[in-house]
Amino acid sequence: MSSPGDLLDGISGALAAEGNILQMVLVTFIGLSCYNVVELIILVPATFRRWRGLYFWSLLVSSCVGIVPYSIGFMMKFFTRADSVLSVTVLTVGWWTMVTGQSVVLYSRLHLVLRDEKTLARVLKMIIANFFLLNVPTTVLTYGANIVHSGDMAWVWGYNVMEKVQLTGFTIQETLISTLYVVHTVKLLRLGADAELRPDSRSIMYQLIGINCAIVAMDLLLLGLEYANQYAVQIVLKGFIYSLKLKLEFAVLGRLVDIIQGSRHPISLAIADTLPLCSYPRPPESTNHVEQHDPEPEQEHMPEPKEILPARTRNSMVETKGFVESGRRELGRSGS
Question: What is 4-262's CATH number, 1.10.1660, 1.20.1070, 1.10.3210, 1.10.260?
Answer without folding.
Answer: 1.20.1070
